[in-house]
């Protein structure tokens, strides 16, 4: 796929439905008008370039041949191009040109990154350098008390009301989520017209290496849900689910499977539907009545609860519980990352542990101890323990952030469909 075509497709698939800046009639959603915002469109295309390069590489069944390995993102190489921030020898240097600014700070999720003061030189460039452990981090700039994204860094993590840049500090050895020299699966977008929501929807689908050319093969499916304010590209862009699966498969640590990443935010426009329907209820209907049947019509999959798993992080973890624990005839595996829900959200599950234990092949719960919601998750786990419901409780160090979510997925994938 050419870069231009790839960018155009990615813009259509991942952006047209996502970055919402102007009211879209009758839906309450926000939508970009590319004809009215050509500069924004151009900046948006540039911001997604690393993802397009990475997705294009992941869509082949050959070995990776990238200039920068290990890395979660493919490297963008241009003559005389200096990446910002500059990452080298365990240190990251942030730069920002603002000659008239009085104060510029970096606010990041790495240790020491909260309000990191930058220094201005005689040319108006603000800089600061700090040592950072290997990992993927997000940050933004604060210029004279105004939060902004770094305009020199094209890698963006986009949320409603809060955008951030991202960078990676590579380690001496490849990470489990890095794009490594192993066989790669295919990441594709499946677009459909939803009768439940009344609009055009999309899901991302990962299929493992060899699936596209091995016609007789049927595989189980994991439905993987994102967090609040995100959409279907979140797990592939910042969760690196395709790379994690590729690497585990290459190591022989997990069974081949298909990963379906739908858009977990769903509201209804269809006449006759209750106008006050809760988003979680609408998504539950769409997942059960449209997404799963659509996947089973378009892909060679194994059917039945023993061949279906559902997992999610944060908001998606709450959806996982509401849907998975009330549909044990549909999902035989349920994994919750950094989320909790009261027992009345899944009526009957706690009151009938015998049925739950018979039908669930895996009930897995994980959370970071520094997560603000950790106490709630711990309390919920205690309820399951007291009720005699079999489960795996996996607390780790970490906040409510992608490093924990990625670690949880890495832990869960080898446990599925054994």
Q: Level of helix content?
A: 25-40%
Number of helical stretches of at least 4 residues: 10
Query: How does the overall form come out from the CA principal axes?
Result: globular
> Which class best fits the helix and strand makeup?
alpha+beta
CATH architecture of the largest domain: 3-Layer(aba) Sandwich
Oligomer: single chain
CATH fold node name of the largest domain:
Rossmann fold
- Please report the distance between the alpha carbons of the first and last residues: 36 Å
Low-confidence stretches: 1-70, 75-79, 270-276
Total domain count: 3
Query: What is the CATH C-level name of the largest domain?
Result: Alpha Beta
Strand content: 25-35%
Order of helices and strands: HEEHHEEEEEEEEEEEEEHHEHEHEHEHEH
How is the main sheet built?
A: 8 strands, mixed
CATH homologous group name of the largest domain: Alpha/Beta hydrolase fold, catalytic domain
Rg over C-alpha atoms, rounded to the nearest angstrom: 22 Å
Overall pLDDT level? 82
Strand segment tally: 20
- What order do the strands of the largest sheet run in, or round the barrel if closed? 13-14-16-15-17-18-19-20
List keywords for this structure.
Immunoglobulin-like; Rossmann fold; 26% helix; alpha+beta; single chain; 418 residues; 3 domains; 25% strand; six-stranded antiparallel sheet; eight-stranded mixed sheet
Structure overview:
The protein is an alpha+beta fold and 418 residues long. It has three domains: 1-47, no CATH class; 67-175, Sandwich (Immunoglobulin-like), CATH 2.60.40.10; 186-415, Alpha/Beta hydrolase fold, catalytic domain (Rossmann fold), CATH 3.40.50. The chain has ten helices and 20 strands. It has helices at 3-15, 38-47, 49-58, 234-237, 241-250, 279-298, 315-324, 353-359, 374-387, 402-412, and strands spanning 22-23, 30-31, 86-88, 91-97, 104-108, 114-117, 119-120, 125-131, 135-143, 146-148, 156-159, 162-169, 186-193, 200-207, 221-225, 258-262, 308-313, 333-337, 362-368, 392-396. An eight-stranded mixed sheet has the order 13-14-16-15-17-18-19-20, with helices on both faces. Strands 5, 6, 9, 10, 11 and 12 form a six-stranded antiparallel sheet that branches. Strand 17 (308-313), helix 7 and strand 18 (333-337) form a beta-alpha-beta unit. The longest helix is centred in the C-terminal third of the chain and has 20 residues, at 279-298. The protein is globular. The two termini are 36 Å apart. Mean pLDDT is 82; it is low at 1-70, 75-79 and 270-276.
């Amino acid at each position: 796929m050419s870069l231009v075509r790839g960018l155009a497709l990615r813009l259509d698939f991942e952006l047209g439905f996502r970055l919402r800046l102007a009211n879209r009639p009758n839906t309450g959603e926000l939508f970009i008008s590319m004809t009215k915002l050509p500069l924004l469109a151009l900046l948006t295309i540039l911001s997604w370039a690393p993802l397009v390069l990475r997705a294009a590489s992941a869509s082949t069944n050959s070995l990776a041949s990238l200039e920068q390995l290990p890395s979660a993102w493919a490297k963008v190489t241009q003559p005389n191009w200096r990446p910002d921030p500059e990452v080298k020898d365990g240190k990251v240097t942030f730069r920002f040109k603002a000659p008239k600014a009085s104060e510029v700070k970096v606010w990041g999720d790495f240790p020491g990154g909260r309000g990191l003061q930058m220094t201005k030189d005689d040319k108006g460039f603000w800089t600061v350098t700090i040592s950072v452990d290997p990992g993927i981090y997000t940050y933004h700039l604060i210029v004279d008390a105004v939060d902004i994204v770094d305009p020199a860094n094209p890698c963006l993590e986009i949320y409603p009301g809060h955008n951030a840049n991202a960078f990676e500090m590579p380690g001496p050895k490849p990470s489990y989520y890095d794009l490594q020299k192993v066989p790669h699966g295919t990441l594709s977008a499946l677009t459909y017209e939803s009768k439940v929501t009344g609009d055009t929807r999309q899901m991302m689908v990962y299929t493992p290496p060899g699936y596209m050319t091995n016609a007789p093969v049927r595989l189980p499916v994991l439905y993987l849900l994102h967090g609040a304010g995100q959409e279907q590209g979140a797990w592939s862009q910042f969760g690196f689910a395709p790379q994690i699966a590729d690497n585990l498969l290459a190591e022989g640590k997990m069974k081949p499977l298909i990963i379906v990443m739908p858009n977990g935010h769903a509201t209804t426009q269809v006449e006759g539907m209750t106008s006050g329907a809760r988003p979680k209820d609408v998504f539950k209907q769409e997942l059960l009545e449209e997404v799963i049947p659509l996947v089973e019509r378009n892909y060679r999959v194994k059917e039945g609860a023993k061949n279906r798993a559902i997992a999610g992080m944060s908001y998606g973890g709450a959806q996982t519980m509401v849907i998975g624990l009330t549909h044990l005839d549909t999902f035989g595996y349920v994994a919750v990352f950094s989320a909790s829900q009261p027992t009345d959200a899944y009526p009957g599950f706690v009151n009938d542990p015998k049925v739950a234990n018979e039908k669930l092949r895996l009930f897995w719960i994980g959370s970071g101890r520094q997560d603000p919601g950790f106490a709630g998750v711990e309390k919920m786990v205690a309820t399951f323990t007291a009720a005699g419901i079999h489960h795996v409780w996996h607390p780790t160090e970490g906040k409510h952030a992608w490093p924990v979510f990625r670690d949880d997925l890495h832990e869960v994938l080898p446990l599925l469909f054994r």
